[in-house]
Amino acid sequence: MVADPAWFIPIAIVAGRLLLSQGVKSISKHAAQRMAQRGIDQEMVARTVKTGKKTKGKSPGTWKYTTGKVWVVINKAGNVVSVGRN
Questions:
Q1: Residue 66 pLDDT level (bands cut at 50, 70, 90)
Q2: Which residues contact 25 (CB under 8 A, 6 or more apart)?
Q3: Separation CA 24–CA 3 (nearest Å)
Q4: Selection from 66, 64, 67 nearest residue 81 by Cα
Q5: From CA 52, how far away is CA 29, in angstroms rounded?
Q6: What strands lie across the sheet with 79-85, from one edge to the other?
Q7: Positions of E strands within 7-52
Q8: What is the pLDDT of residues 35-63, one digit of tens each?
Q9: Domain 25-85 has CATH 1.10.10.10
Q10: Phi, psi of 15 (to 5 degrees)
Q11: pTM, whole model, 2 decimals?
Q12: Where are the domains of the chain?
């Protein structure tokens, strides 16, 4: 069963400032779907980007931020391109 990311839109409006303060400009459709499927909210993404360990991502021009529970991949434009749980 695939979760419907429709819940994400109101949260994006409310919590958008939190992500912007961490340098995140947008969240891709793929990342939003993964967030919905994996029960990851925007606060978790923002916290991971703020406090997580930063390493180079698998794809050129990406960075991976990792905490004990969550990882977030951001491209050089500041867009979240994928998220997951450890």
A1: very high
A2: 77, 78, 79
A3: 23
A4: 64
A5: 22
A6: 26-27, 79-85, 70-75, 62-66, 53-56
A7: 26-27
A8: 999 999 888 988 898 899 999 999 999 99
A9: no
A10: -95, 5
A11: 0.76
A12: 25-85
